[in-house]
Design a protein that fits this description.
Elements lengths: L1 H13 L11 E2 L7 E3 L10 E7 L2 E10 L1 E4 L7 E9 L6 E8 L4 E8 L12 E6 L13 E2 L8 E8 L2 E6 L7 E3 L10 E5 L2 E10 L23 E5 L22 E5 L6 E2 L13 E10 L3 E9 L1 E7 L2 E8 L19 E7 L2 E10 L15 E6 L5 E2 L17
Length: 406
């Protein structure tokens, strides 16, 4: 009977959100026939699950020793998801929802707990990350994390989702421990997954129950900043041999190798939306824009990035920089994550139009090993934009995929 109820909810969620007096919580059985494990990929091991019956747990226990398990027959859009979990090891168990796309290149949202013994004091005990074209760009969103009041034993998690917003409550807290003002993946509905290693039970899904949470995204706090570069040109990808410095002459010159792409909230040029993750070796992409100066002068810019960058102004190499999470010594503040605090330098401009070009190495490791499916991208801000004219876009950021792999 419960399996039939889950399928009924699927049909209901696919249409208009029902009124409050028709919404019914769905208690999900932790048993074979309701779940399937997911195949292995570079994000982690293949799911390894056991289903147990134990006194006091009438809906069963899902023991997820590794990887992920997907709930069958339910497509979630808005509402509340709550469950209990007990960690099995120091790791990052959590919840994925609105998962769509393919298993190799999923889209969706994920919230997870970092169970390493310091989550009550550290600022990253709980984190949110979007899943974009198979990437998990946790390092591109340092703002989506917080402390979390969790213990080594059983913890209760309640996730409330409404449109582009989410709130997460831990262990019956009355205040949200994590609030996300703009869910970043763009996936409107999809599957529910659990990620181990942990034991899960008491999973309840209540479609349409959002507790008054608004559905519209919060305003971009940087929307009125005129110094942020909003419009770019991005190239097709190129191989980088032995981490040698790319030459300006190697930048693609053919017009059909370039396409326009806009920065997103906060000025983030999110390249995860432009390419599809794969098992291939790391590559470099070229980015460029023009800036017009009233007179010759040098301007200070702040730059955020992941990987390694080479900055050219009017064909001349100005500076290079690394921001790798590994090795630890090459992490830029804040903690190897992308932010305007990563670095700053001056760009010499001549009167008239200037071309700024950037080569960006797509990796989170300072070597040529197969890349991991984490974030890559860039953000640039002129500290004093007076006397300058550069693109500012009002278009919706592009989600075009221009390469078959990254």
């Amino acid at each position: 009977m419960m399996f039939m109820n889950v399928f009924a909810c699927t049909c209901m969620l696919a249409g208009t959100v029902p009124s409050a007096n028709t919404v019914r919580p769905i208690k999900v059985q932790m048993s074979v026939g309701h779940w399937h494990t997911l195949p292995a990929d570079s994000m982690g091991p293949k799911g390894e699950a056991q289903f147990l019956r134990k006194e006091g747990f009438p809906d069963g226990l899902l023991v997820l020793k590794a990887g992920s398990a997907a709930l069958d027959g339910l497509s979630f859009r808005d509402g509340t998801i709550e469950y209990d979990f007990k960690p099995l090891a120091p790791d990052m168990p959590g919840l994925q929802f609105r998962v769509s796309g393919t298993e190799a290149s999923p889209e969706g949202e994920e919230v997870y707990e970092r169970m390493f013994g310091d989550e009550r004091a550290s600022n990253d005990g709980i984190q949110y990350v979007p899943l974009i074209h198979g990437f998990m760009p946790w390092n591109a969103y340092p703002q989506y994390q917080n402390r979390a009041p969790m213990i080594d034993g059983w913890n209760h998690v309640r996730v409330v989702v409404s449109g582009r917003r989410m709130k997460v409550f831990i262990n019956r807290s009355t205040d949200a421990v994590l609030s996300v003002g703009n869910l970043e993946s763009g996936s409107a509905s999809g599957a529910v997954h659990l990620r181990g290693p942990a034991i899960f039970t008491n999973l309840i899904v209540t479609p349409g129950e959002v507790g008054g949470l608004a559905s519209e995204p919060e305003l971009d706090p940087t929307a009125r900043e005129t110094g942020i570069i909003r419009e770019w040109q991005a190239s097709s990808l190129q191989s980088l041999v032995k981490l040698q410095t790319p030459a300006y002459s190697e930048m693609p010159s053919e017009a059909n190798c370039w396409h326009p792409v806009d920065s997103e909230r906060g000025g983030l040029l999110n390249l995860n939306r432009q390419y599809v993750a794969s098992e291939g070796p790391p590559m470099i992409g070229w980015l460029r824009f023009n800036v017009t100066a009233k007179h010759a002068e040098s301007k200070l810019v702040s730059l955020g990035w992941i990987g390694e960058v080479w900055i050219f102004a009017n064909g001349t190499l100005l500076t290079t920089g690394k921001n790798f999470y590994y090795p630890e010594k090459e992490r830029r503040e804040p903690d190897g994550r992308m932010a305007f605090e990563n670095g700053s330098f001056k760009i010499p401009l001549h009167a008239g139009t200037n071309e700024i070009a950037i080569a960006l190495y797509a990796s989170v490791h300072d070597d040529l090993r197969t890349r991991t499916k984490y974030g890559w991208g860039l953000m640039m801000r002129f500290q004093d934009p007076s006397g300058l004219t550069f693109p500012r876009s009002t278009r919706v950021p592009s989600t075009r995929k221009v390469d078959s792999h990254l």
